[in-house]
Known about the structure:
The protein is of the alpha/beta class. It has one domain: Pyruvate-ferredoxin oxidoreductase, PFOR, domain III (Pyruvate-ferredoxin Oxidoreductase, domain 3, 3-Layer(aba) Sandwich). The protein contains six helices and seven strands; from the N terminus they run E-H-E-E-E-E-H-E-H-H-H-H-E. The chain has helices spanning 28-41, 115-118, 133-140, 147-157, 163-174, 180-196; strands at 15-23, 45-51, 60-68, 83-86, 106-110, 127-131, 198-199. A seven-stranded mixed beta sheet has the order 2-3-1-4-5-6-7. Helix 3 packs across helix 4. The longest helix is centred in the C-terminal third of the chain and has 17 residues, at 180-196.
Amino acid sequence: MQYRREQKRNEMKETIEIRWHGRGGQGAVTAAKFLAEVALSNGKFVQAFPEYGPERTGAPILAFTRLSTNPINAHYSITNPDLVVVLDQTLLTLINVAQGLHKNGIILVNSEKPPQDINKYLNCNGKIFTVDANVISQETVGRTMPNMPMVGALIRVQEIIPLREVLNCFEKSFKEKFSAQLIEDNQKAIKRAYEEVKEG
Length: 200
């Protein structure tokens, strides 16, 4: 997927494939599934699934999201993503997160560093964005949980779904699980990451 400044960011290609890199306990799988749920509620065809490895807290994990305007017939891991979301910047020195990324694809990294500093860890032609999802989650939710801020940043760099729809869907999805205060705090985290994401 090509990223062009002059194009409207909400123009969605037929199918968008997203690969999530994180560590156990950071909520990458939840984020992948939540994004698919929001897209489904907005009329898209979706898939979301993890690639299970060591399931211990802190172990590197992968998750995948496919969003399409047409039925999805693919049933395999995403090896040539349009977007890569990295929830833990320490993975940049351990894993080639840009592997298979489409030319001019997007990489979004949870980092306090500017995109220019992240670029030295990557060997790709992709567009790099960063957002400090750890600090955002600490200051809004009260603990380090970067997954929902990363969803907020993702829909800013590629407006697959309007922000208001994401916020509304979060409340509907988690109202039986979270308190009203925690829902509000997470909505603030999503919105803040949407506003604070940095472009390379």
